């Protein structure tokens, strides 16, 4: 307790110093001047609770930087990366952003992997006019603050949460031919609620009927009574936005009760634990939306997969690897078009990004600094994720 | 049909609550201690079963017996180490110790193996049966059967054996029992052993039925079982069984009406109402026997 108080005070005082510096007329310019390197900061969860996300993003970033430097850099300038570990902690993420902007004077920051740790840096990015690009922060409030204003210098490479609900609804109607669906959402998570309402909106707008809407709370273990209720409404399809720990149990219990309609979720399902909990057989006829699939036959993706395997001893890249990798190319493209390493120029160029072909889809940045791109649908077949199709927004 | 299905869901859930509640009620009956470690014994039982099935390849019944044995020993050790020397101190001291031991066990397990959940392997053949138009998995039927058999065995031990008679005597009046030549210490240990063995069995059954186990899994079922025990009348064995089933069915009915988010709240509202209006529980007044 005392430790965290000290941490907060420390952060606050550092923040104060930075703000004071800005106020006193120091421009807080972050560019490297006319050097022959471009300095990019990486502020990631390299340890702590969600270290696997941060490490994956970083591995993707390192691969992309290596490729760019081998190919001669951006506009002939080599890219230099400074990594800082934010320990999966919002206060540490703020500290790391202060260090990167004031001490290392980086051109741009890539990070963090999660929405919360990105939001923790947003203020600093705006104040010091440093572009902040989150590879995998999917919460809407990363780029748009809660009071509705745009974080001018904050961008992201992943699509936002509710988008997956929209995609799932389109897939259910167009590809599966579903007319009535049920929703079972985790009521304790904004992520699940956002997906659920986006699904409902799109599904009903396209002429479908939501026949049953139920909720559960994370850490529940018994879903049989709720499922019985859903079963009696006879849906042809059940949308279950949530995280794998509960979803695994829901799928197992649903199949035991004889509910054999297609089930669908989003990237929260994406964990090997899901297969262990639900069982490979129960998972048949279930689908998820995700950022990308390493099995997608697309040429850009297969190139990336091959290069990744070469660098990391045959490991297969996951969605975080792809998003980290894409973030570097998204940034590199903007710097190239801006023709300078001046922050505002990069920011303007990023805003004008149009149809750039990346691993996780063809990306156009919209006015809210979110990418518009396709989502990938995966199907579980005997416990393995198989590439099904791509859905455009 | 939907209601028949919901009733069955409730009974399955209730049988697990009842098994855990029995241990609570037995220990309370004999030393007037609300043994909050009971939820952790349940968790240890579940993990023992898991390791027996996943790593030693044992079947369901051998794992069940092994887990009950381990938990019986574990329960006795807890009693000897933590509670025995507090037997003549205030009840609040023993209660606080129970909470302390409970937290200690939870976090030692997390320290040893981490906090990540584990998925129970499929040990029982699982077919979905269609009985009177409701879908029942063969697994849940077998589990229900095992719970009921265990409760019948317990009833037999308490009423037809010498140790059962000693337990009832100690629960009635420990000093008088001592004067009659009953070894009070051994009797208390036996109570802990039997109660903990039931919690161990509940742990394995829970694992098979609900798949996901983790080091903090004992907290909520432990609290629910405590409510079940209070509902039936704490200290009274049939009360714990009835309380468990009633609680399971009430929770299911709450969900069945579409208030799934209110399920846990409903359980605790029952606890509050019982404590206000009938603190001695459903069976509290006219029943004389206590264990």
UniProtKB/TrEMBL annotation, chain A:
Keywords: Amino-acid transport, Signal, Transport. This is ABC transporter substrate-binding protein. Residues 1-20 form the signal peptide. The keyword Iron does not apply. PANTHER family: LEUCINE-SPECIFIC-BINDING PROTEIN, PERIPLASMIC BINDING PROTEIN OF ABC TRANSPORTER FOR NATURAL AMINO ACIDS. The keyword Transport applies. Coiled coil: none annotated. Pfam families: Peripla_BP_6.
UniProtKB/TrEMBL annotation, chain B:
It is found in: Cell membrane. The chain crosses the membrane at residues 7-31, 51-78, 90-112, 132-158, 188-210, 265-284. It comes from the Bacteria. The keyword Transport applies. Keywords: Amino-acid transport, Cell inner membrane, Cell membrane, Membrane, Transmembrane, Transmembrane helix, Transport. This is Branched-chain amino acid ABC transporter permease. GO terms for molecular function: L-isoleucine transmembrane transporter activity; L-leucine transmembrane transporter activity; L-phenylalanine transmembrane transporter activity; L-valine transmembrane transporter activity. The keyword Cell membrane applies. InterPro entries: ABC_BtuC-like (IPR037294), ABC_transp_permease (IPR001851), BCAA_transport_permease (IPR052157). GO terms for cellular component: plasma membrane. PANTHER family: BRANCHED-CHAIN AMINO ACID TRANSPORT SYSTEM PERMEASE PROTEIN LIVH, HIGH-AFFINITY BRANCHED-CHAIN AMINO ACID TRANSPORT SYSTEM PERMEASE PROTEIN LIVH. It is a multi-pass membrane protein. Belongs to the binding-protein-dependent transport system permease family. LivHM subfamily. GO terms for biological process: D-alanine transmembrane transport; L-alanine transport; L-isoleucine import across plasma membrane. Its main location: membrane.
């Amino acid at each position: 307790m005392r430790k965290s108080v000290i941490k907060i005070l420390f952060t606050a005082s550092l923040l104060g110093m930075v703000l004071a510096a800005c106020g006193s007329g120091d421009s807080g310019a972050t560019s490297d001047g006319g050097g022959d390197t471009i300095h990019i900061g990486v502020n990631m969860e390299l340890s702590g609770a969600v270290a696997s996300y941060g490490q994956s993003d970083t591995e993707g970033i390192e691969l992309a930087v290596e490729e760019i430097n081998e190919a001669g850099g951006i506009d002939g300038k080599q890219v230099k990366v400074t990594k800082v570990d934010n320990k999966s902690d919002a206060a540490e993420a703020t500290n790391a952003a202060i260090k990167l902007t004031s001490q290392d004077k980086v051109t741009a920051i890539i990070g963090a992997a999660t929405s919360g740790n990105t939001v923790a840096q947003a203020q600093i990015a705006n104040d010091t006019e440093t572009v902040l690009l989150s590879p995998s922060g999917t919460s809407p409030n990363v780029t748009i603050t809660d009071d509705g204003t745009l974080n001018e210098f904050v961008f992201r490479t992943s699509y936002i949460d509710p988008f997956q609900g929209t995609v799932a609804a389109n897939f259910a109607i167009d590809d599966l031919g579903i007319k009535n669906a049920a929703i079972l959402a985790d009521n304790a998570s904004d992520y699940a609620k956002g997906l659920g309402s986006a699904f409902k909106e799109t599904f009903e707008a396209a002429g479908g009927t939501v026949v049953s809407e139920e909720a559960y709370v994370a850490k529940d273990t018994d879903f049989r009574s709720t499922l019985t209720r859903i079963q009696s409404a006879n849906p042809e399809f059940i949308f279950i936005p949530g995280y794998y720990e509960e979803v695994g149990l829901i799928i197992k219990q649903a199949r035991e009760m004889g509910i054999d309609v297609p089930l669908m979720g989003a990237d929260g399902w994406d964990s090997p634990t899901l297969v262990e909990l639900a069982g490979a057989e129960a998972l048949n006829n279930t689908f998820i939306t995700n950022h990308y699939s390493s099995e997608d036959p697309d040429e850009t993706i297969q190139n990336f997969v091959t290069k990744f395997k070469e660098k990391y001893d045959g490991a297969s890249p996951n969605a975080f690897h792809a998003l980290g990798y894409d973030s570097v190319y998204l940034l590199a493209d903007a710097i190239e078009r801006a023709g300078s390493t001046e922050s505002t120029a990069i920011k303007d160029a990023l805003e004008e990004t149009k149809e750039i072909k990346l691993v996780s889809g063809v990306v156009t940045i919209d006015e809210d600094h979110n990418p518009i791109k396709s989502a990938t649908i995966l199907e579980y077949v005997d416990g393995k994720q198989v590439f099904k199709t791509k859905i455009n927004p | 049909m939907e209601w028949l299905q919901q009733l069955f869901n409730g009974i399955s859930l209730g049988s697990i609550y009842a098994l855990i509640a029995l241990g609570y009620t037995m220990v309370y009956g004999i030393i007037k201690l609300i043994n909050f470690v009971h939820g952790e014994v349940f968790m240890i039982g579940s993990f023992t079963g898991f390791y027996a099935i996943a790593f030693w390849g044992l079947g369901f019944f051998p794992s069940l017996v092994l887990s009950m044995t381990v938990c019986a020993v574990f329960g006795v050790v807890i009693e000897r180490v933590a509670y025995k020397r507090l037997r003549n101190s205030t009840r609040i001291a023993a209660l606080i110790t129970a909470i302390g031991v409970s937290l200690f066990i939870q976090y030692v397990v997390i320290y040893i193996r981490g906090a990540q959940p584990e998925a129970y392997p499929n040990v029982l053949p699982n077919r979905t049966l269609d009985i009177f138009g409701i879908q029942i998995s063969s697994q849940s039927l077998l589990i229900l059967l095992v719970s009921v058999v265990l409760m019948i065995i317990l009833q037999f031990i308490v009423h037809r054996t010498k140790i059962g008679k000693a337990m009832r005597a100690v629960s009635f009046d420990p000093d008088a029992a001592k004067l009659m030549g009953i070894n009070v210490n051994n009797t208390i240990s036996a109570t802990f052993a039997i109660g903990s063995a039931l919690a161990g069995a509940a742990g394995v059954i829970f694992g098979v039925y609900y798949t996901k186990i983790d080091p903090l899994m004992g907290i909520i079922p432990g609290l629910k079982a405590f409510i079940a025990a209070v509902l039936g009348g704490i200290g009274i064995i049939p009360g714990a069984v009835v309380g468990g089933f009633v609680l399971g069915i009430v929770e299911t009915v709450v969900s069945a009406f579409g208030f799934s988010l209110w399920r846990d709240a409903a359980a605790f509202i029952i606890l509050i109402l019982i404590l206000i209006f009938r603190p001695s529980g459903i069976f509290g007044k006219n029943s004389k026997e206590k264990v």
